[in-house]
Batch of 2 targets.
Target 1
Amino acid sequence: MKSHDVVRRETIRLCLSAIHNEEVARRAPLDDAALLAVLGKQAKMRRESIEAFRKGGRAELVAKETAELAVIEGYLPAQLGEPLIRAAVERVIAETGASGPSDQGKVMQKAMAELRGKADGKLVAEIVKSVLGGGGLSPTEPHGPTRTEQAKPAK
């Protein structure tokens, strides 16, 4: 407050408010893991906002959200890089005996238990998908029955 850093002050106030709201919801003080989870959610919200504002051509709001994200990330543990995440995912795959895309949920559960707070879940999911070889549906594949197919009466 004395340095008149408005962005830092307002961001910290927003985070403290989110922490307080979570404590009220749980009816108990938060432990360290829960505090990191709240801050992680706040950081994720900023990242999503930055992406949306960037698509909308709102440079001033991108700059504001980026500054807030930098403040929040200062209170979070350092994030692991892709090579370290890939190594952890490969180790988890070896431990679980996963062999294909159908085992992605099992691998993600164990990997996120180990990497929570240290790595972005979206990045972990992408790495798991690439290592297991799951490309998902291609754009030319149908995504299920169309609305007209669902409305047709059975013969």
Note: The two ends are 73 Å apart (CA to CA).
Target 2
Amino acid sequence: MNTRQRVLIVSSVLLSLLLQNAQANPNHLEPIPPCYDPLDLDGTSGQYKEAVFTSLIGRGWLPSLWMIERPSSSRAYAVVVWGAIEPDPNDSRPASRREIKRKQWVVQYTALNEEIRREKIWRSKAANGRTPITYDVRPTKNVERHRVPITAEFATVVREAWLSTLQLTRYAQGDRGRGLDGTTLDFFCCDDPFAGGLFGQTWSPKTGLPAMLADLGRKLRAIALSDEKNRDSLLAEADSLARRIAKDAEAEQIKLFGKKRRMNIRGARQ
């Protein structure tokens, strides 16, 4: 085997490894699948996801953005950024028409309590003779919450990172297998209050925009759990990372679509 042949073989192997790594770690989020799973014969998997969502995020309101992390070996949690609206108490008109006195932006961390093992979302009744195992899946109020105020400017920077990354969401090429031990991360950002929002998902990301966005979500968790003396440095780190994510996501948009996609960021600038 001559030198040229060896170089071609080594190059082919390296290219194959790079392609496999790109497929295993795509530089984008993937669409969140429907709750139905063909292997979920009794429907409890979808019920569990909905119960976790309701327990951590709730129903009937639309936060600016959120991330839910569901590790395989520890408790699930969510981080949420939203604007808490305080109407003018002296305004006697109906609530929907009252003048807004103040809008305070906050980052909130919500987690299933450690005691969730005693008050389970996923309850089961053991099989007895010929009676099969039955499941009772429901939301729980056994959660802990931590909330800290943030500036509207910081909320806007984080939202731009979230939205620009979610706009790249698409299915990955090839089969990206998911192991039994890892973490699933779901992301949401409100693109338009009247048209809903964007969703994306990733599993145990190691590189690229998904890993960076997961890191930003975890930094928001640290901010929500922080005390005042350490908060400024955490906010600065998160701000820097959010700006980098938005810049990298915009470059990826230009590479894929030939232009930067439009973003509606009015919500965080009100």
Note: The longest helix spans residues 228-257.
